[in-house]
Amino acid sequence: MRSMRAAAAAALIVSLTACGGATSGAGEDEPSSGAKGTVNLAINPWVGYEANAAVIAYLLEKKMGYTVEKKELKEEIAWQGFETGEVDAIVENWGHPDLKKTYIEDKKVAVEVGPTGNQGVIGWYVPEWMTQQYPDITDYKSLNKYANLFKTSESKGKGQFLAGDPSFVTNDEALVTNLKLNYTVVYSGSEAAIIKAAQQATAQKKPLLFYFYEPQWLFAQEKYVRVKLPAYSEGCDADLKKVACDYPDYVLDKIASKKFADTGGAAYQFIKNFTWTNDDQNLVSDYLTNQGMSADQAAEKWVNEHEATWKPWIPA
Amino acid sequence: MAPMIAVTDLWKVFGPRAGRIVGTPLADLPRAELRARTGCLAAVRDVSFDVEPGEVFVVMGLSGSGKSTLVRCLTRLIEPTSGEISIGGEPVRAMGPKRLRDLRRRQVAMVFQHFGLLPHRQVLDNVAYGLEIQGVPRAERHRKAGEVLALVGLDGHEHQYPDQLSGGMQQRVGLARALAADPEVLLFDEPFSALDPLIRRDMQAEVRRLHAEVGKTLVFITHDLAEALTLGDRIAVLRDGELVQVGTPEDLVGAPADSYVADFVRDVPRSDVLTLRWIMRDPGPDELCEDEPLSHRTVIRDAVHRVMRAERPIPVVDGDRRLGVIDADRMLAALVSHHRQVPA
Amino acid sequence: MTATSPPAVLRVTAAALVDATRRRGFWTRTVAAVLIVATVVAYLIFRTDGAADSDDAAAFRFFDSVRDWVDANRDTSPFFLYGVNYVRLGVRLLVDAVQAVLLGLGFAGLVAAVSAIGLVFAGWRTGLLAFGGFLAFGVLGLWEQSVDTLVLTVSAVLLSVLIGVPLGVLAARVRWVGATLRPVLDVMQIMPTFAYLAPMTLLFLIGEPAAVIATMIYAVPATIRITALGISEVPPTAVEAATALGSTRWQLLSKVRLPMARTTIVLAVNQTIMLALSMVVITALIDAPGLGQNIVNALQRVNVGAAFDAGVAIVILAVVLDRITTNAARRTRVHQNRRRRAIVAGGAIVAVIAAALITINPDRLPGYTFAEPVNDLVGWIELHWYDVTEGLKNGISAGILDPLETVLVTTPWWLFVLVVAAFGTLVSGWRAAGLAALAAAGIAGLGLWQHSMQTLATVLVAIALTMVIGVATGAFCARHDRLATAIRPVLDAAQTMPSFVYLLPAVALFGASRFTAIVAAVIFAVPPVVRLVERGLRDVPATVVEAATSAGSTPRQLLWKVQLPMARGGLLLAANQGIVMVLAMVVVGGLVGAGALGYDVVAGFSQRELFGEGLAAGLAIVLLGILLDRLTQGFHDSKGPRR
């Protein structure tokens, strides 16, 4: 199959030379058409996303006969994949109005494929024990008072605000500046690192102020409390440099490449139909993270127990 | 007969804008002064000589005398600054790149001090290299290379690599490589100076033998006087890029042109080099001589036996012409003295 | 301001500088002292409050606008339609072709092919090693990823050889080409891998072509340099002899120069492979498939065990490729029996074809994974060593790193530029100093002063630790032969390992912090430093050592008064090498909480609105590299080509 692809690409070069110029998507795999083909799923770096992808990939492969290629990509890079043809679908998208404008409206290489059914929340959190000891800590106005509690080797004498992966949707640095908080944003580098820090904060009663979000399996095990920032209002985050309000609630949705939408057939229809609850996702995330299951094992277990949920997704 | 190689007024000056030197008063400056004034080094200065077909012409000098530069100028491995060179009657300096390559491929071959063998090729392919780059088919060039290897006494070593051979054998490969294309002229650049003395002597004998067998024109560079005297029909002595003297070994030893040459030849055992011509005397009036004459070309040492045993002087002849006589007194004087002698 | 006050730190640095210049005589010493005093005074007068970098500098906006232009014109501008996009397409074809060959062989076929290559070119031991190594990929359950990594590496190496060998030949043969290439290669070699990625995605988007091109850019300087070295080392006598026989220029090249340089050229390929392998792993960040994905994935999940398997697979791949090429290079010097070799090669080809016909599913092999034991070990260390690791991290961060960072960040940029120029002139001459000062000014112009100084502080601490550990170990090795023999294979393995892998143990022990990056950088840079120091010490002439010993020196006096001063060249070369490597690693540390420029780069290619800043940060890293390299360059001028 690969050699056929090489031959096809060679033929392409010839034809391109004849008609002038190569576009950026030239030579890439055509996305799977009506025949059972390959679906390229982007895998963004947090476990909730992986849960969606695990179940979708499992059903596509085991129940529908497709091949699924999973690609570990950060959000922005996954969107670039629509343009190059390396990505067919993103199955949990957090907002990203700027990317939607670029890739859906301007370049017309991607399309929205509807909500996943999950409600997304992003916010600043502290472990529950801190709210008992410092009851007013959940108000951002008193954060400066407690800045000393949150000092670490990385926070340069200020309080530490622990953020996650640099690719996540964040306004934290702007918030710290605009709300005049005496804090330094420190990037842990990944979701796993935040979770680890959060677990330690609860277990060892260490102070921690951190970026976190739902759906998130950890909330099923331990309690974390959201710090109240100035309430979100439509458009208050329009200028990313001047944001001084909390994150909005997100309706998480799915995005597919235009080519996949046009030619993806049943696979595209299936992804379009996919929708489930935060509890469903948390359950699979828990399998993945805490039960030591592989993506396939976790998906298999969930699929076996929730036939009523997934049956309607599969196009007739 | 036209000379095989004719060199006229040859100059090679190294350094910045070397071309401006020749033909100006600067050219007359001594080497060191020229260097101080212009930063240029005159490696070869106004050299002229001819080499006859079949002759062994030796260029001798100390290191830095310009002899290696001179021999490289002959096939323009080093581009001369001015002067004329012709080989086989054809002016070399006027040749285009293609003709020059052809000259190097077919007419003039060279043997180097450090052999210059290709370590990644077997002996056979080293020897065949020159034929290979001329496009000679594989089977033919291997046959030819095999023949030449046999000629230099290396049969059986065809499939070895150069680093598996001793120095002397490596130079035999170098020699074979030069012979492979059957050139008219062979250039030797101090070919044996990197070898042990015993092996050197073998190799010199080899060259003499080959010269006798194949009869090429040889130009031979050396800093070793003994080697020059052994091999050379004529010897050119080079000092600081200039020719000091050109002549037969006897000329050099018997009649050095200046003190430089005299110094050079001082320790040469004269009886090994000079012929009877240099020590004979005129016969006395009515002097009685031996019947059997000696040729005037006889080297002194070879005549010792006869002369010392003879009761009377022995005539020295050139063919039928009697040039003089030699007797025991003369002989003894020649064997012990280091005085400069003048041919009669 | 915490702990030590800035002047105290300066005093330490001053002492070190005075020490470094001790041997340069009274005049230099006086100048150095005056400069140090002037620097301290100027700093105390002019120090700033170290304001945070704006996120809206002119440079960022410029790069953003470049990005927007490229985005808008990617499918319309002739530059892309007829240039860049074709390059991308061509590289894509190459990758596909290599992939088709390697996958076409199948599991059994590829294992057989690599073993056969090892056997024919490098001997039966290497063949066996290759066989076991490639089998291990299957056992580890990483067959596909390993093959993907191999495909990218082979493609990048092919490209590098295709481009690098001709350029190397030209550089050696044509004076102006060599003179033009040298500074370009200098910069390419000190450019940290990370800095390539954003511009790569801008031009070539994401995916295999961008990854292969980035890898090629990283690896090709070694190909060019070593090839040029090999060509220029061909003995002139052989060239002259061949010329005298009437060879054309082309015949000289193809029949004399290239064959005689082939050992060196094979070594060039060896270096190219090693560099390519370490870069290919990093290109996982721009969607290159393979083992790098596993490592990125494991980093994201802070799952050291999962990464360990991938790390082992990378090391195996590196060792197999290294052994095949080094032994092949060694073999080019040995003359082999042609017929026997032809028979072995023929047999090997038959065996490979036979094996290619067998279908073995590598997933069916008995599997083994290090994940659990390693994770258990990491858990145990976290539990029991927590206080130690935490104490070490906090101690160094608060005691050294923070004060140094404070001083650097609060130094006004113009003062920094002046100091670089002044001390640079003293240490490396005015040329190098001028270039370094220009680089420093450039960093200021990019609007990333604070981040650059933070990165610089981390680099300085890391290089100090590296030198202390490296020199101590090197000195020890130079004096204890048995230890040296024992440690050599460890150093060998460490040097074949791609830089990325070193992040994992550091993360496991120290979590996400600047100190983590320091630890990773130290692990990364110590092996070559140990080597250079050991070699420098061993190169001290035996007669001198003998003389000192007979004068009654104790071993300690011998080391401090004779060997170390005489090995100064080796030590300084080690420092220069170490700095370049440390910078590369500290920047990669941006992935694991080291922040500053490394973080900006990562953020730049993962957040659209930060693109310009990321690109500027990449440039700042390059400038920082030039600055550090030039400042230490005087140490080893005329030491010949590096690596």
UniProtKB/TrEMBL annotation, chain A:
The entry's keywords: Signal
InterPro entries cross-referenced by the UniProt entry: ABC_Gly_betaine_transp_sub-bd (IPR007210)
Signal peptide: 1-20
All residue ranges annotated as the ABC-type glycine betaine transport system substrate-binding domain in the record: 38-305
Name assigned to this protein: ABC transporter substrate-binding protein
Pfam families per record: OpuAC
Gene3D superfamilies the record matches: Glycine betaine-binding periplasmic protein, domain 2 (3.40.190.100), Periplasmic binding protein-like II (3.40.190.10)
Domain of life: Bacteria
PROSITE patterns: PROKAR_LIPOPROTEIN
UniProt key word Signal: yes
TrEMBL record, chain B:
Residue span(s) of domain ABC transporter: 24-265
PROSITE patterns found in the cross-reference section: ABC_TRANSPORTER_1 (PS00211), ABC_TRANSPORTER_2 (PS50893)
Gene3D superfamilies assigned: P-loop containing nucleotide triphosphate hydrolases (3.40.50.300)
Alphabetical UniProt keywords: ATP-binding, Nucleotide-binding, Transport
InterPro entries in UniProt: AAA+_ATPase, ABC_osmolyte_uptake_ATP-bind, ABC_transporter-like_ATP-bd, ABC_transporter-like_CS, Gly-betaine_transp_ATP-bd, P-loop_NTPase
Highest taxon of source: Bacteria
Pfam families found in the cross-reference section: ABC_tran
Gene Ontology MF, one: ATP binding
Family: Belongs to the ABC transporter superfamily.
PANTHER family listed in its UniProt record: GLYCINE BETAINE/PROLINE BETAINE TRANSPORT SYSTEM ATP-BINDING PROTEIN PROV, GLYCINE BETAINE_PROLINE BETAINE TRANSPORT SYSTEM ATP-BINDING PROTEIN PROV
Protein name: Glycine betaine/L-proline ABC transporter ATP-binding protein
Organism: Paractinoplanes ovalisporus
From TrEMBL, chain C:
Gene3D superfamilies xrefs: MetI-like (1.10.3720.10)
InterPro entries: MetI-like, MetI-like_sf
CDD domains tied to this protein: TM_PBP2 (cd06261)
Protein name, UniProt field: ABC transporter permease subunit
Organism, scientific name: Paractinoplanes ovalisporus
Mode of membrane association: Multi-pass membrane protein
Signal peptide (from-to): none
Domain ABC transmembrane type-1: 146-325, 452-632
